[in-house]
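Consider the tokenized backbone below.
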């Protein structure tokens, strides 16, 4: 029996790619031959062009899993037309196109991805979603459509076990409070709000603080806008933009951080939340999209307002007892729901159900 995994692009370090590779590893352990398909995009894994999928998956007993996170017509057709009786869609959510108004190509890909959700929901494929939020999004297009929640495979366990690269934080050992944001510098991460909240926090509560923005900068015009926001806020000497970091550097940043700040306007899951839980870093977040689904009671929430977020950061950092309770809740939530072993158990159970259909 073969298992075909269809994914528009497959990169190391990408959250969707990490999930696809994690699934492939577990399916291989079950004795399945796993084949990746994409549209010819270069990949660190061996992949076959999706046009060749009908010639590779020839048996009705073969299985297909399609990872949907952006418009990918060949992937949708693969689910609609495959001869395989067992097919699944892993829905990672699609970023709304309005976040990429200045990039017409990306905005179109996002809009196409949203338009394709209804078609996927109309098939007889099993739908797995990173979060209940994503399942509810599918049901906006097809009310009552069944889905099963399946958190994505990730690298957080490896991050926990990794030796930190302390050179990345050699200048951050001056006892100042460190507020950390983790993730790509892209519009939906809403980093200007993080900068504004940080400015409020320094002004009202603690002038001895810094903000670290750790993540790749794939959208140059937006990265420039964030830098301009930092300058205009008067915080240029207190905000550090790292660019892309290694996992060892990222761990050092987490261990140095006093709090993780999440200001995203849109998330389908939000891996930094579980990284912070696993490393016992308290979280302050805006409860938008999938953030409260992933964070649960392990995060403290405030509305998308700079003053409200600054106040919540101060509350977390000045109440030692509650902060300890919060980080303990985070660790328990990580261990019970989001560590690799927990996701493996969930995946194995869902695959057993799926293959038994």
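A designed sequence for it:
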């Amino acid at each position: 029996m073969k298992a075909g995994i269809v994914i528009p692009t497959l990169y190391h370090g990408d959250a969707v790619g990490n999930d696809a590779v994690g699934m492939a590893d577990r399916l291989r352990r079950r004795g399945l031959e796993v084949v990746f398909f994409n549209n010819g995009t270069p990949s660190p894994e061996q992949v076959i062009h999706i046009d060749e999928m009908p010639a590779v998956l020839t048996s009705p007993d073969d299985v297909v899993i399609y990872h949907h996170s952006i418009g990918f017509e060949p992937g949708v057709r693969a689910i609609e037309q495959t001869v395989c009786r067992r097919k699944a869609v892993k829905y990672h959510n699609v970023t709304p196109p309005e976040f990429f108004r200045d990039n017409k190509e990306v905005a179109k890909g996002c809009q196409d991805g949203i338009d394709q959700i209804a078609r996927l929901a109309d098939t007889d494929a099993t739908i797995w979603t990173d979060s209940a939020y994503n399942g509810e999004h599918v049901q906006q297009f097809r009310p009552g459509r069944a889905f099963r929640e399946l958190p994505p495979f990730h690298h957080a366990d490896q991050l926990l076990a990794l030796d930190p690269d302390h050179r990345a934080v050699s200048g951050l050992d001056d006892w100042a409070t460190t507020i950390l944001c983790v993730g790509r510098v892209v519009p939906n991460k809403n980093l200007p709000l993080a900068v504004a909240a940080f400015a409020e926090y320094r002004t009202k509560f603690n002038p001895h603080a810094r903000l670290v923005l750790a993540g790749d900068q794939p959208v140059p015009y937006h990265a420039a806008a964030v830098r301009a926001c930092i300058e205009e806020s008067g915080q240029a000497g207190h905000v550090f933009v790292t660019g892309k970091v290694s996992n060892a550097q990222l761990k050092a940043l987490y261990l140095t951080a006093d709090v993780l700040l999440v200001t995203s306007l849109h998330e389908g899951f939000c891996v930094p939340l579980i990284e912070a839980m696993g490393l016992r870093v308290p979280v302050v977040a805006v409860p938008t999209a999938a953030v409260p689904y992933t964070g649960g009671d392990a995060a403290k929430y405030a509305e998308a307002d700079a003053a409200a977020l600054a106040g919540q950061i101060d509350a977390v950092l000045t109440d030692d007892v509650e902060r300890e309770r919060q980080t303990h809740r985070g660790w328990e939530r990580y261990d019970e729901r989001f560590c690799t072993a927990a996701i493996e158990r969930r995946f194995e159970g869902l695959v057993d159900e799926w293959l038994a259909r």
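The chain has a mean pLDDT of 95.
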